[in-house]
Amino acid sequence: MSTTDTDTATGSSEPPGKAVKGAEAAGPADERDLGAAGAQLSTAPAEEISVSSMGPIGWARWFWRQLTSMRVALLLLFLLSLGAIPGSLVPQTGIDPVKVENFKQRHETLAPVYEKLGLFHVYSSVWFSAIYILLFVSLIGCIVPRTWQFIGQLRSRPPGAPRRLTRLPAYTTWRTEAEPERVLETAQRIMKRRRFRTHTVGGAVASEKGYLREAGNLLFHIALIVMLVAFAVGQLYKAEGGKLIVEGDGFANNLTQYDDFKSGTLFDKNDLAPFGFQLDRFTATYERSGPQKRTPRTFRADVTYWEGADGKEHKTSIKVNEPLEIAGSKVYLLGHGYAPIVTVRDGQGKVAFRGAVASLPIDAVNLTENVVIKVPDYRDKNNKKDQLGFQGQFVPTLDLNTGTMFSQFPALDNPALILTVYHGSLGVDAGIPQNVYQLDTSRMKQFKESDGSAFAKALKVGDTMKLPNGAGTLKFEGIKTWATFQISHRPGNDYALVGAVAALIGLAASLFIQRRRVWVRAVTGDDGVTVVEMAGLGRSESAKLPEELADLAVALQSEAPPAPEPEPNPDIDTAQTADPAEGARA
Q1: Measured between alpha carbons, how far is 287 from 78 in angstroms, rounded to an integer?
Q2: Beta bridge partner(s), residue 534
Q3: Residue 505: is its pLDDT beyond 90?
Q4: Most buried in the list 394, 419, 453, 492, measured by CB within 10 Å?
Q5: What would the mean pLDDT of 326-354 be, rounded to a whole number?
Q6: What is the three-class DSSP state of 280?
Q7: CA 197, CA 156: separation in Å to the nearest integer?
Q8: CA proximity to 358, closest of 252, 254, 444, 248
Q9: Which residues share a beta bridge with 342?
Q10: Which residues contact 295 (CB under 8 A, 6 or more apart)?
Q11: What is the mean pLDDT of the chain?
């Protein structure tokens, strides 16, 4: 009785038609017997260097083999990942030099060590660059020879069948009355229909499938190179800056418009694309009850933007994780706060300052903000030149029952402006740049009440604060909202995304596609009946290979059905089972 089950037949002596289920891998001796049939199932280069006979050229070749091996590439990739950890945990001079200086002041012992190790500028350090370059060279050295070898395999034909098919991991056989030529023609047709590459050699059909496994492996490596190049380009040509904009104000993509700006080594300021936008309105709503109280529900900046010097205006909204893409740059919404609108009159009753004053949060949850107002052009009641400085807090929701002057909710439920006033020198005439959100009171005097206490007032919208001794007034006119934006130009991001997607596709192909070969041999037996043998070999052991071989055998048996088993010969059976003693006596 014939069968289509597969058998391993690793040196098996089982007769044709009797299957041994399973898929045991052939041993080393069996692999040597397979010859060319088991070769070139991978594009990995073989290491055949003898250490005892290596000279300078041999050592150089050995070093190159090690550098371009998969294990070294993975090790370098792992080291690159480890190297990025301090870049995330330690303040970086290229991102925030102020934090770096503060870190050095707080950690006087660690700072010199970090400085020598380059931990304050990880991504431009020598050791990180060395790992990056070695990984780049390793990947290229791994890809180039494997690519040419893979192209050679695509142009070649599957190798002929080994002499003993029974030594292959998956094997089956049966007898049929169909002619051997017809069996081979049918087998080749079935293989081609199932996308095997086939040809007939040495009285057997040789077929191969699963080349996309190696293609996926190469795609994965090439994608890694694309990602490395994209990251390098992004770092060298990047341009990134921040801008705080009050409602009604705008921004033009010019260096003078940025509050802070950093760029890559090869970036040219002339490369800034001409575009701009205006903040029309900012909307923020918050959860008012439950465990998520104070959590933002609406966080949206409505803007009008244009591209080019005379570009047409368009309206859109920018939300968190939904940036505005314009002229190759992305505009991200980062945060928001409030800008009290005030009018300051001097001792002569003239307007010395009028406008919205953006204040920075000192409480990120409830948005209590620090307020600084500088009035350099001021005259007192005697018409003498002087300078004023207001300092205090803006509180969106003031609740005096709490006993604090801090906000209890981020929305404008009960806004208040609490200020004290100084007069003297602001230090703005010295020509030294100042932080507009900080007030230097070292050369100033605070206004006092009649009893000698510090002068301070809490104002509601519409209230006016009168300075002592007729020094002037400050009126709290209203409130505007401001928003902070990050304008980022990274030319390599799109290529990095393409590389990441390609790497995932290549990795999936190399993991889930199995490269395998199948041979079909049909020869005429001593009794005139055709004996069909089918065997399969994969690059790695897989339970699907015996199943696929069984499926192919069933398809082939539709054209080459199993022949009936020969009838036993009674005379031969009697002779074989007769008593040898009786034969001798006869």
Answers
A1: 43
A2: 172, 520
A3: yes
A4: 394
A5: 93
A6: strand
A7: 10
A8: 248
A9: 355, 476
A10: 286, 287
A11: 83
pTM greater than 0.70: no
DSSP character at residue 562:
B
Query: At CA 109, angle to CA 107 and CA 115, rounded to 5?
Result: 85
Contact 399, 388 (CB under 8 A): no
State residue 308's pLDDT score. 85
Residue 583 burial (C-beta neighbours within 10 Å; 0-12, 13-18, 19+): exposed
Question: Computed from CA positions of residues 557, 544, 151, 29, in that sequence, does the dihedral angle turn out positive or negative?
Answer: negative
Q: Which residues neighbour 191 within 8 Å (Cβ) at sequence distance 6 or greater?
A: 198, 205, 207, 518, 520, 552
Contact 9, 19 (CB under 8 A): no
Residue-wise burial string across 289-306, b where 16 or more C-beta atoms lie within 10 A, e elsewhere: eeeeeeeeeebbbebebb
- Given phi > 0 = left and psi -120 to 50 = alpha, else beta, which region is 9? left
Burial of 10 (0-12, 13-18, 19+ CB in 10 A): middle
Quote the CA–CA distance of 540 and 451 in Å, as a whole number.
92
- pLDDT category at 353 given cuts 50, 70, 90 is very high
CA-nearest of 176, 183, 184, 169 to 16 is 176
- Exposure letters 29-38 (e unless 16+ CB within 10 A, then b): ebeeebeebb
Buried b (16+ CB within 10 A) or exposed e, 196-218: bbbeeeeebbbbbbbeebbbbbb
Nearest to 444 by CA among 394, 369, 391, 382: 391
Burial class of residue 512, CB neighbours in 10 A (0-12, 13-18, 19+): exposed
**pLDDT score of 48:** 53
Q: Is 154 helix (H, G, I), strand (E, B) or coil?
A: helix
DSSP 99-138: HHHHHHHH-TTHHHHHHHHTGGGGGGSHHHHHHHHHHHHH
Dist CA 337 CA 327 (whole Å): 28
**What gap in Å lies between CA 563 and CA 554, rounded to an integer?**
14
Q: What is the pLDDT of residues 18-56, one digit of tens each?
A: 333 333 334 444 444 566 666 656 555 555 555 555 678
Structure tokens at 55: 């000279």
Tens digits of residue pLDDT in 211-242: 888 888 889 888 988 988 888 888 888 888 89
Q: How far is the C-alpha of 369 from the C-alpha of 360, rounded, in Å?
A: 5
